[in-house]
Amino acid sequence: MEAIISVIIFAAVMILIMTEKVHRTTAALTGAVLLMLTHILTVKQAIGYIDFNTIGVLLGMMIFVAIVKKSGLFEYVAIKTAKKSGGNPWRIMVLFMIITAILSAFLDNVTTVLLIGPMTITVTRMLDLDPVPFLITQALASNIGGTATLIGDPPNIMIGSAAGLGFMDFINNDGLAIVLIFFAVIFALRFKYGGDRLGGNKEAISKMMMMDEKKAIEDPVLLTKSLVMIALVVLGFILHQFLGLESSTIALTAAVVMMLIGKQDIDKIIADIEWPTLLFFIGLFIIVGGMVETGIINILAKAIISFSQGHTVMLMLILLWASALLSSILDNIPFVATLIPLIIALGNDGMDIAPLWWAISLGACLGGNGTLIGASANVVISGISNRYGHPISFKDFTKVGFPIMLLTMVICSVYLVVRYGGII
Question: Domain locations in the chain?
Answer without folding.
Answer: 5-48+73-216+274-420
